[in-house]
Amino acid sequence: MNNENLSQQEAATRADLITVDTYDVHIDLTHAAAGFETFPVATTVRFTAAAGQSTFIDYIHQAVDSVKLNGKTLHLDDVVQGSRITLPNLEKENTLTIKGRSYYSRSGEGLHRYTDPADNRTYLYTQYEPADCRRVFPCFEQPDLKAVFNFRVTAPKTWVVSSNAELERELEDPSDSTISKRVFKPTARISTYITAILAGEYFVARDTYSPKASVNSGNIPLVAYCRQSLAEHFDHDNIFAVTKQGLDFFQELFDYPYPYPKYEQAFVPEYNLGAMENPGLVTFTENYIFVSGADQSQLESRANVICHEMSHMWFGDLVTMKWWNDLWLKESFADFMGHLGAAEANGYKESWVTFANSRKAWAYRQDQLPTTHPIVAEIPHLEAARQNFDGITYAKGASALKQLVAYVGFDEFIDAARLYFKRHAWDNTTLDDFLAALDEVSDRDVRSWADAWLLTSGLSELSCRLVRDAQGNLATLTVQQVLPPEVPASIGRPHRLQLATLALAHGRLTQTASIPLEMPAGTEEAQVNLSADELAQVADAAVLLLNAEDLTYAKVALTEETGLSTALSHVSTLEDPLSRGLLWGSLWNMTRDSKLEASRFVTAVCQALPQEKSATLLSNIVAQAQSAISLYTPQDQRGTLWDTLYQALLSALETAAPGSDEQLIMVRTALSLASHTRLGSDFARDVARGAYGPVDGHIPQAPGVSYNQTLGWKALNALAVNQQVTEQELAQARSYSPSATAERGYAFALAALPTAEAKAKAWEAVTGNPDLSNDLLSATAAGFQQGPESLRTEYRSRYFELLAKTWGERSGGMATRIIRGLYPAVELAEGTLDNHPVITATKDWLSQNQDAPTALVRLIRELLDDAQRILAAQEFNTAGR
Fold first, then answer.
1. Which amino acids are annotated catalytic?
2. For residue 158, what are the CA distances in angstroms to 155, 171, 365, 630, 745?
């Protein structure tokens, strides 16, 4: 029986029935390194209940050995039903003990086990959000049934073992001196999904936080973990510095001491997320260990994520949403606070540039899908909760909070947060609880704001229109808003804006004025009252930048009248990086929306390459240029654009300062482009030497960038796509220096080879090998998608046949990786929106599978929308040629 998908109603009923006191959990990892599929678990739960009633506890297991409730052993056939264990005839005070065996994971869900190919060391860590704690031990898996957890972990004595709480004592196994049991102190009262266990042969770095903030928890031990084979690249001193500055900043800001006894951070392999806010033991993807060097945008990103997870210690861990409807109460707030902490506590002043140009691009894309939803969304069950960790909940929610700060004031916003923490510490909350706190400190109408922004979906588009008199002189200016269909005109969307006027002089754009504007709720066109000086500034402007300072959430469209051509040719001459980021964001949105030819966008990027000094913006625009060519440009136009972009990149690389961020970004981009243009073959062959063995010196085209394995495999991947490397050469590189990088690179490259045999093997590996790990599955699927579409045409019908089976047999995370990773590409040469075989097949599947799981249907609808957008853009760019 597959009954893993807990509904909101079931959770609410259970929460009304029981209150959980404590869990005592013993996990035995004695044989974790021996390759066993499962591990023993013993769990005792103490909870109160309405006497005489029944409920169930959640456990996704390999086996249940025994269930004892209030001293009575229950018959397993009577109570074990799939992933639920029925608990009949409850008493007022209950003690439940369950013994069983749980699976080690290769999907990153539950207790993930990884063997490092570099040295065969074993590493384990847990990842639970939103509901995978039940894959490790029996629990009441919902956020509002908080409890105190007492963890005991048996493992090899030489291993590092950690959990949320501090280690209390270590007990040696009386029958085996190589094994010991680690006993941890009780945790604070927390939700199941933020409990955590770490075990294995980790490298450990230690430090201590000594507070400078007036509001503080006192000294806190700091620990950072990574795999032993990454220790030489682990810049833990920087990580500790960011952590200390963040702790000072947030304790003072929130007027509430850090509420846990330690702060540990583990950087772990094959991680599904960026990071997870387990109190006392935060986990991160080890991609934040920069083996081949880091540019400023990468360091900023890591600082942002460290601050994001740290803010969760208050927003999410101390005060937790009642159910996943209010996921925004933690993720939207943490997304906002991550950027704030990176900027204010750690000096990454371009953090808000990243937010405006990159993070909001994610939100804008998500909000235009047919599956968009309000920030505060109705979440009927856990499958829906898993899918709502998306651009709406994170980036749009954070955008709304940024707008809220502009609306009510920063001090009032923080006062509300402080009140919220003190009032609801260790409890669970809903939207109304935060709005009540905000109501108490602000005289703004926050309820109407919430109605307009949190409870509606869709994306507004703003633009300026210049109104001229009979003589052609500028008379006034209006701001127009196209409301999304999901927002009733009676509610509308209020906007507080700044209009920046940009003049062009001596080949550079400079800001000449900033004019405040307001669009009241329910307004779709607002006339701006301009003074004579402001009118003159607008009349003389080369570009009008609406939403300067990024105060609201909306796409902004440029027209020729408001400076489109000038923006395209001079955007990166603007001194202010936030203004540049906003202009680039507008240009990219217009490209995606088929309002700006992809070739014009790529040309703008080529012109900007030698000028753009922001690592964030440079990384983003070269990635967007590649998407503009590969997705939105008709196939017969791509070759010329790939060559043009590569040549512009090499030219810019010649002038980049040795060792600079720009140089490193351009080298990486050149290797990506080598997959698409033969002009990059020689460069890729040279850089690939770094995957085969140590190469002294720097890459000739980039003095300051050393040969290394990461860049070497990136080069090998490009060569594989063009069949310029053999399987034997790939195997040689893989065996030279075994590592996670080599394994992922090898999986991608084999699948990327443009042969029928390579595609067949890749397809079988992704769809038929349940032992393939999450990372290797994604790398293989990505390689499968490389090369001519004709090599994959035969798999289209098989793709649609496997959807239901894959969703039913794989975990949610792995099924999503397979379904997204293998969705067929679309080319205008095969048909239009009306008759393209992939579009038709997708619509047919949706029509014929209306009773499929809603989460699967949502996934397919999003893939269909992406495909339709791609075809529409290719058609637009054909017509515009």
1. 309
2. 8, 13, 48, 50, 32
Is residue 285 scored above 70 in pLDDT?
A: yes
DSSP H or E stretch at residue 403: helix 397-408
The residue type of 622 is V
What's the whole-number mean pLDDT along residues 762-776? 96
DSSP string, 39-70: EEEEEEEEEEE-TT--EEEE---SEEEEEEET
For helices 328-344 and 296-312, the axis angle rounded to 10 degrees is: 130
State the DSSP H helix or E strand holding residue 350, giving kind and residue range, or none if neither.
Answer: none
What confidence tens digit (pLDDT) does each residue in 694-711 have?
Answer: 899 999 999 999 999 999
Alpha carbon 514 to its chain's center: 34
> What is the C-alpha separation between 852 and 874, in angstroms, rounded?
31
Instruction: List CB contacts of 546: < 8 A, sequence separation 6 or more.
Output: 462, 463, 464, 479, 497, 499, 556, 562
- CA-based angle 456:457:458, to the nearest 5? 135
Q: CA-based angle 698:725:758, to the nearest 5?
A: 135
In one-letter notation, the amino acid at residue 150 is N
For residues 305 and 272, the answer to whether their CB atoms sit within 8 Å is no
The model carries a pTM of 0.96
What is the dihedral sign for C-alpha 585, 589, 595, 599?
A: positive
Bridge partners for 115 per DSSP:
122
Q: Which value, to the nearest 10 degrees, does the dihedral of the CA atoms of residues 580, 586, 588, 593 take?
A: 180
Rounded-to-integer distance, Cα 57 and Cα 141, Å:
8
CA dihedral 831→837→839→845, nearest 10 degrees, is 170
Q: What is the mean pLDDT of residues 779-808?
A: 96
DSSP 8-class letter at 157: T
> What is the model's pLDDT at position 520?
85
Interatomic CA distance for residues 330 and 317, integer angstroms: 8
Whether residue 312 contacts residue 334, with contact meaning beta carbons closer than 8 Å, is answered with yes
Encoding tokens for residue 346?
């750690």
Structure tokens at 313: 């210690």
pLDDT digits (tens, 9 = 90+) for 199-239: 999 999 999 999 999 999 999 999 999 999 999 999 999 99
Model confidence over 83-97: pLDDT tens digits?
999 999 999 999 999
Residue 881 has pLDDT above 60, yes or no: no
pLDDT at 339: 98
| 3-state class (DSSP) for residue 501 | strand
Using alpha carbons, select from 4, 171, 40, 101 the residue that is nearest to residue 813.
Answer: 4
Which of 485, 325, 340, 321 has the alpha carbon at shortest distance from 401?
340
pLDDT 10s digits, 852-877: 999 999 999 999 999 999 999 999 99
Helix, strand, coil % in the chain, rounded to nearest 5 = 45, 20, 35
Q: List pLDDT tens digits, range 532-581.
A: 899 999 999 999 999 999 999 999 999 999 999 999 999 999 999 999 99
The enclosing H or E element of 95 equals strand 93-103
Instruction: With residue 205 as reference, give the H or E element that holds it.
Output: strand 203-209
